[in-house]
Design brief:
By secondary structure, the protein is an alpha+beta fold. The chain has helices at about 5-15, 60-80, 95-110, 160-170, 180-185, 190-200, 210-225, 240-245, 250-255, 270-280, and strands at about 20-25, 30-35, 40-50, 80-90, 115-125, 130-135, 155, 205, 225-230, 260-265, 285-290, 295-300, 305-310. Strands 8-10-7-11-9-12-13 form a seven-stranded mixed beta sheet, with helices on both faces. A four-stranded mixed beta sheet has the order 3-6-4-5. Strands 1-2 form a two-stranded antiparallel ribbon. α2 (about 60-80) runs parallel beside α6 (about 190-200). The structure holds adenosine-5'-diphosphate (ADP) and magnesium ion. The site of adenosine-5'-diphosphate has 13 residues, from α1, β4 and β5. Adenosine-5'-diphosphate binds near residues 27 and 28.
Length: about 325
């Protein structure tokens, strides 16, 4: 017999509380949470809809992971330390096998980052997952996307384009074999530690969810600045290089979303400090360009400088 709503919440989403700042978690009408004095609460919410953000039949454990990862990535890109999450789940049916795998993926990632699931909502309908995440950051240390300054180095954590390649593989658009690309698409690793290390050091930061060109475009627009990237410096993994060599679109890595790497800027005078700080943990980061005064995004490639129309890289652009 299928589980009812309350048994389902109890079995899959109620866990012992480990955080001292959670006065009351799942079970009452509200959670009661104690914010850290002297810090801002950073809050973000994201929804994943079946058929829009993921394909029907996607592995539920990966989906649980990704549902939380995208929200933790938003906290990371503010430089915030994650603390609490809530989960609003709309399910077509109460399927215990699916729920067990989904909860496993979500709660394992939460535990790794010391994050507590403190509440949510469970309803019946087409599959959709909404995760709200909250964390803390000092106001002066928060990494705003509008804070890029002329002369800043532009950096990217990890690598570029793999999730986009993963999507092409999953959709059967390429016959290239690259399990690491599918893994990156299905289980992105939010750059939580990197984000916290950058708080108070980087000027501007954004996570790459819609594609580097589009997301960097937001940052440039917000700061009233421009940028020139260096193609040779882009951290393109070998699978992407193989894909391009085999005739794949070479601009895909700039257009493709879902990598959830951090793109951030650092004042030239503090770039040495950055190297020292990032060396403390396992997250590569490379400089891919520089902020300049002239608005717009440019790419140095094969001794030429190309203009990149970031609007051409948006999901919805004006007709
Ligand atoms: P209410 O009717 O007061 O909104 P609900 O029946 O929706 O309460 O939820 C009961 C409790 O379970 C609440 O504490 C709520 O936060 C929690 N909850 C419901 N769904 C989830 C979920 N998917 N994950 C975590 N907590 C949940
Ligand atoms: Mg409710």
């Amino acid at each position: 017999m299928a589980l009812g709503e309350f048994e389902l919440i109890k079995q899959f989403f109620t866990r012992p509380n480990h955080r001292a700042d959670v006065c009351l978690g799942v079970g009452d009408d509200c959670a009661l949470l104690r914010p850290t004095e002297g810090e801002c609460v950073a809050m973000t919410v994201d929804t994943l809809v079946e058929g829009v953000h993921f394909l029907a039949g996607t592995d539920p454990e990966g989906l649980g992971h990704k549902s939380l990862a995208v929200s933790l990535s938003d906290l990371a890109s503010m430089g915030a330390r994650p603390a609490w999450v809530s989960l609003a789940l709309t399910l077509p049916r109460s399927d215990e096998t699916w729920l067990a795998a989904f909860a496993k993926g979500l709660l394992a990632l939460a535990e790794r980052h010391g994050v507590e699931l403190v509440g949510g909502d469970t309803t019946r309908g087409p599959l959709s997952i909404t995760v709200q995440a909250m964390g803390f950051v000092r106001e002066k240390d928060a990494l705003r996307r509008s804070a890029a300054r002329v002369g800043d180095g532009i950096y990217l954590t990890g690598d570029l384009g793999l999730a986009g390649l993963g999507l092409e593989i999953v959709l059967g658009k390429t016959r290239l074999r690259a399990p690491e690309a599918v893994a990156k698409l299905e289980r992105p690793e939010p750059r939580v530690q990197a984000g916290m290390a950058l708080a108070g050091l980087a000027n501007a930061c954004i996570d790459v969810s819609d594609g580097l060109a589009a997301d960097l475009g937001h940052m440039l627009e917000g700061g009233g600045v421009g940028a020139t990237l260096d193609w040779a410096a882009l951290p393109l993994p070998s699978a992407i290089r193989r894909h391009i060599a085999a005739g794949g679109d070479e601009w895909m890595p700039l257009r493709a979303g879902d990598d959830y790497e951090l793109c951030f800027t650092v004042a030239a005078a503090r770039e040495n400090e950055l190297a020292a700080r990032m060396a403390e943990f396992d997250c590569s980061c490379v400089r891919i360009g520089r902020i300049d005064e002239q608005p717009g995004l440019r790419m140095k490639k094969d001794r030429r400088v190309l203009d990149i129309d970031v609007r051409g890289f948006q999901h919805f652009h004006p007709a």
